[in-house]
Structures are given as C-alpha cells and as structure tokens.
C-alpha cells in the first residue's frame, strides 16, 4: 500500500476525548479516495458510491501525524474499488482500516460512465 497523504492532527480535529474525531478522519479518507480516483480516471467528475465498515483500531492525539494509504483492489467498467489504511506516521500503528471504497466515474450527464482504465497509472508515466 502506498501512503500518499499526511495530515497533522490539530486542536480543531479533536473530539471531547481529545483524540482525533472520527468524522474528520472519514472526511480526509473520502477526500483522499476522490483525489486518487481523479488522477486514475483523468476526470474530476466522480462520486463516492460505497464505503464498507470502518474498523477503528487506534486513536490519534493532537500533534500526531497520520498517513492515509490507498490501494486499488479492482477496476470496474465505471468504478474503481479501493482499500484504505490510516496509520500513525511515527509509530506505524494502524488507526483505521477500510476494506472497500467504491468510486464511480461520471459522464457529462452526471450518470455513471465507462472510464476505460484497467490498471493503476502514475502521472510520471503519462508525462514520458
């Protein structure tokens, strides 16, 4: 799994227990999944269709740096299925894992549209 994004846990990210608020973490995960998918589809028009159970395994505190990892598990005709893990950058402790996030490519009409992709592509390879 590649860890693409780091986030610094700040006071505004905390819940009343002074640990990272789960809703904030899921916002970051959804955003990361969308950005990753935009790069793969080469299209900014997409939606999150499904997020499976979120397994909260550990917490993060103010000042911690977390990493969000994404990997592709399946290319569908109009979709991309991802797996996600969020971990503490310093301790490598898993904070959450999500086995399935499904992102759907949209056409100009706002309906699911084929994306034509079959494998992970890296931007550096498109530029060469």
CATH class wording: Alpha Beta
Question: What's the CATH topology label?
Answer: Thiol Ester Dehydrase, Chain A
Q: Share of helix among residues? A: 10-25%
Portion in beta strands = 35-45%
Please describe the biggest sheet, giving its number of strands, its sense, and whether it closes into a barrel. Answer: 6 strands, antiparallel
Total strands: the figure is 6
* Poorly predicted tracts of residues: none
Your description of this structure?
It is elongated and about 45 Å long. The protein has one domain (2-127): Roll (Thiol Ester Dehydrase, Chain A). The protein is an alpha+beta fold and 128 residues long. It is built from two helices and six strands; from the N terminus they run βαβββββα. The longest helix is centred in the first third of the chain and has 20 residues, at 22-41. Strands 1, 2, 3, 4, 5 and 6 form a six-stranded antiparallel sheet that branches.
SSE topology sketch:
Layout: E1 2-8, H1 22-41, E2 46-51, E3 54-56, E4 65-75, E5 79-88, E6 94-105, H2 123-127
Antiparallel strand pairs: 1-4, 2-6, 3-6, 4-5, 5-6
Which features does this protein show?
about 40% strand, 6-stranded antiparallel beta sheet, Thiol Ester Dehydrase, Chain A, elongated, alpha+beta, about 130 residues
Summarize the structure.
The chain is α+β, with helices and mostly antiparallel strands and 128 residues long. The protein has two helices and six strands, in the order E-H-E-E-E-E-E-H. It has helices at residues 22-41, 123-127; strands at residues 2-8, 46-51, 54-56, 65-75, 79-88, 94-105.
């Amino acid at each position: 799994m590649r860890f693409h994004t780091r986030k610094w846990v700040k006071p505004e990210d905390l819940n009343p227990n002074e640990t990272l608020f789960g809703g904030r973490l899921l916002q970051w995960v959804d955003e990361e999944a969308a950005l990753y998918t935009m790069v793969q589809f080469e299209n900014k028009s997409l939606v999150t269709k499904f997020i499976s159970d979120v397994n909260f395994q550990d917490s993060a505190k103010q000042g911690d740096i977390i990493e969000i990892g994404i990997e592709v598990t399946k290319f569908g005709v109009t979709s991309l299925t991802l797996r996600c893990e969020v971990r503490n950058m310093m301790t490598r402790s898993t904070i959450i894992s999500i086995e399935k996030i499904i992102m759907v490519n949209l056409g100009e009409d706002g309906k699911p549209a084929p994306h034509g992709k079959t494998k992970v592509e890296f931007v550096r390879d498109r530029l060469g």
